[in-house]
Design brief:
Layout lengths: L14 E8 L7 E9 L2 E7 L14 E8 L5 E6 L8 E9 L2 E8 L7 E7 L5 E4 L14 E5 L2 E5 L13 E5 L5 E4 L11 E5 L2 E6 L4 E5 L15 E5 L4 H5 L15 E9 L4 E10 L4 E2 L3 E6 L5 E4 L13 H4 L5 E6 L2 E5 L3 E7 L9
Antiparallel strand pairs: 1-25, 2-3, 3-4, 4-5, 6-7, 7-8, 8-9, 10-11, 11-12, 12-13, 14-15, 15-16, 16-17, 18-19, 19-20, 19-21, 21-22, 23-24, 24-25
Length: 361
């Protein structure tokens, strides 16, 4: 299907084609996470749903896959062996650090909270477990923000396991030394649902508590492991997308006293300057989420324009919140021109227009 540059509503099409394929998940799969491990190839992991009843109810299992995009832009999925995480974890974080994929998980079990880390060598296909040891390491926590900058894995924010306190501490894990280093605190409280992505070697995140644009900068090789070198910078966000989106969705059974409106967004880096922000609002008590809107943001000028939404991203006729919730979807550029979206319901292959990637956009 070929699409025009501008829709009937006047919104720019930032893509030329969008094709739909079956989901990579088995029935009941949810909470997809993925990372690019090569041209047209990603590693993905998701949870299976609980099966059985009562004492026979099985805990969720992790399913690991390698997804490859063929020359015809057809996603092909192969189930592979991945690490087994004991106990209950709330999510799996996958980040590529150099020639490795780092898988980070955290147990939210009081009082025996811990985290697990595994590394996957892309060249050899071998996994290695990094064991939890006391010392200079980040405390286990719920829903931290995890991302990659340079040759380091970054962990910041999240909530306390027992008291839900908000964290601001920031930690770097070096692939070279296999050690954690605590660096300067983040100026804002962030978590797994904070909207952010790495663009041109800098991680940009946009917050809604007080509208802000925070950046995490890499340091030169001589400063790696030096906690005194500042990584974070922050500035007000002149284009507060959240304010523009909240209040646009209202379910039929909305109760202004009981229903709290929620806002969530995810960001994907499209080029060295532009990010795509996918934004969704809804209501927590009635478990209803709206149709996502899409925005292109310039990370230098912070100029923002609303663009056409990805067709088929959610199914408004299906009231399953977890199927339509963007926080449970994986969205990433699989090559310079192609965005891959994987959800529990569908897999979308989106071909990005080159005009969007130009400085003139």
């Amino acid at each position: 299907q070929s699409l025009c540059p501008v829709t009937m509503s006047g919104l720019y099409h930032w893509f030329s084609h969008c094709t739909s394929w079956p989901s990579i998940t088995k029935s009941g799969g949810h909470s997809l996470t993925a990372v690019c491990i090569g041209q047209n190839t990603v590693m993905a992991v998701y949870f299976t749903s609980n099966r059985g009843r009562g004492r026979e109810r099985l805990p969720p299992q992790l399913v690991w896959s390698i997804v490859t995009l063929s020359e015809e832009n057809i996603p092909q999925t192969e189930t592979v062996t991945g690490p087994t995480i004991p106990g209950t974890v709330e999510s799996v974080y996958l980040e590529r650090v150099g020639g490795y994929v780092v898988a980070y998980t955290c147990h939210a079990d009081v009082p025996n909270s811990t985290w697990h880390m595994h590394t996957y060598c892309i060249d050899t296909g071998e996994w290695e477990e990094l064991f939890y040891e006391d010392g200079c390491i980040p405390e286990p926590r719920v829903r931290p923000l995890v991302f990659q900058v340079g040759q380091s894995l970054i962990l910041t924010g999240g909530y306390g396991v027992s008291d839900l306190r908000r964290y601001k501490d920031t930690w770097e894990w070096s692939q070279d030394t296999r050690l954690w280093t605590q660096v300067d605190d983040c100026p804002h409280t962030l978590d797994r649902f904070s909207c952010g992505a790495g663009t041109d070697g800098v991680y940009h995140t946009f917050g809604t508590d007080t509208p802000h644009h925070s950046q995490y900068h890499p340091v030169n090789s001589g400063a790696i492991g030096n906690a005194t070198v500042s990584r974070w910078s922050t500035e007000p966000d002149p284009t507060d997308i959240a304010t523009r989106c909240l209040g646009t969705v209202q379910p039929a059974d909305f109760d202004q006293f009981d229903d709290e409106e929620i806002y969530q967004a995810t960001a994907i880096s499209l080029s060295n300057t532009h990010q795509l922000h996918v934004v969704q609002t809804g209501f927590d008590d009635c478990c209803e989420v709206g149709v996502p809107t899409c925005w292109i943001r310039d990370c230098i000028s912070l100029d923002t324009v609303r663009v056409a939404s990805v067709p088929g991203l959610v199914d408004v006729t299906h009231d399953d919140q977890y199927t339509n919730d963007i926080s449970g979807m994986a969205m990433l550029m699989i090559n310079q021109d192609t965005l891959l979206v994987m959800s529990p319901r569908v897999t979308l292959v989106v071909e990005v227009c080159h005009d969007v990637l130009s400085p003139e956009f």
